[in-house]
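Lab notebook: predicted structure, single chain.

Context: the supervisor wants predicted structures on file for every construct in the current expression panel, including those that have not yet been purified. This is the next one on the list. No modifications to the sequence; it matches the entry in the shared construct table.
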Amino acid sequence: MKSFYSSSGLVLAKYDYGEADCIFFVLTPDFGKIPLIARGVRKITSRKRSAMEVFNIVRFKARKSKNIFFAEEVELVWMFKRDRVGLSGISLAYYFSEVLDKILGENEPNKPVFDFSVNFFKRIGKVRDLKCLRIEFVKRLLVLLGFWPDGKNMTNPDLILESILERNLSTKEVGIKVLA
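Prediction complete. Output recorded below exactly as produced.
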């Protein structure tokens, strides 16, 4: 059994843990969605602090204990530029992140979903019509994960997504109001 693992990943969520630690949920091509604990990341002297932000793409080395990964080294690969996308873009990024966090199971590797997700996060700053981007994201994700047949018309992707998740998304209302 390997003691250290290395991969790249998209940071989906961040939760404070203890005084100086954080638990990050990271989508990786090799391990799927994983919890990654970064010890001391909230300390002002932490070198991991700048890289481990939500929506960034990072390369990390971690050790695994049970089903939890502990970050040893973290390197920034791509930074989500919040100042360039505006409030609408940030809202859409949170929506993408919540959808991915809720629909994907932990420790289920899926490189096509990882590549798809990275592509859509990078497109947020480049596309003008964010409402169409949001709808396209949901439609293509449902087809990619096998929840909807490819080529079949989807009239209300939000309703289908909520029926699959069996709960409402907290970022949906914010996204719809901002993107209207």
